[in-house]
Amino acid sequence: MKSRLPLVRYVILAVIVAAILSQLFRPALVAQWYWASALEKLDAGDNDAAVRLGEQALDWSGDSPQMHLRMAELLFRIERKEDAIALIEKSEDLLSDDPSDLARASYFLSRMGAHEKALTLTDQLIEKAKVDEFQLHSALNQRAYATALAWSDGADLPQESLDQALDDINQALQIYGIEASYLDTRGYLKHLAGDDQGALSDLNNAIPLFEAEILAYEDKEDIWETAKQASLQQMRGALGVLYHHRAETLQALDRSDDAKQDMQQAEKLGYSRQAGHW
Length: 278
Known about the structure:
Elements: H1 5-24, H2 27-43, H3 47-60, H4 65-77, H5 81-90, H6 92-95, H7 99-111, H8 115-130, H9 136-152, H10 159-176, H11 180-192, H12 196-218, H13 225-252, H14 256-269
Helix pairs in contact: 2-3, 3-4, 4-5, 4-7, 7-8, 7-9, 8-9, 9-10, 9-11, 10-11, 11-12, 11-13, 12-13, 13-14
């Protein structure tokens, strides 16, 4: 009788291959592949190819809110601001389900100068925090910082919005405790309110705290190196924002030389509204 073992082996091999292919061609994985390719083209300066690949990533993502935000970011970076805003507006129903998406969309809209829309999303975030769908201290900081960015851009906001923002960030600090980014928010708001000495005190405390966080992260050994370097780049860019805020404050205090040093440090660390550090 002829052995059936080879046939069994072929069946097993076919099952394994099918399982591998099913994973390789999962829509989410295909979307990630297209997105990675889009970023490569963007870095290479081939904007048209980046947009085509980004649109394919969006198609494969199944209308993922996260991919909508990424695609809007890409469009903004190649100076297609109106298209980016339109994509965010089209995605509002998708974004409202996840508070983290609302937070990212709000900050992104602030960067694009759509401050009224950004603040509306932070109000939604506060409401979600009130029913325990998001951390209240984080939502308060989000609204406070969105207000600060609107004021720094010269948006037509009433004085009481600045007072409310200071109340928000003070409440956030009371709930959570001392945190570098929260001190930065309060310091920047104080600067915008004309309390530059108070602003400088907060920013002088925030910067070394944030630098210590970066040093601690650099020492971690249980993180994939590529991911670690990407995170460090983001953290350094965020630190650049703190230096930029302090530079503005120092300039207002007529300390031009110190302000220039901080501005140079901000640029060195990657401060850039267009690239996401603002």
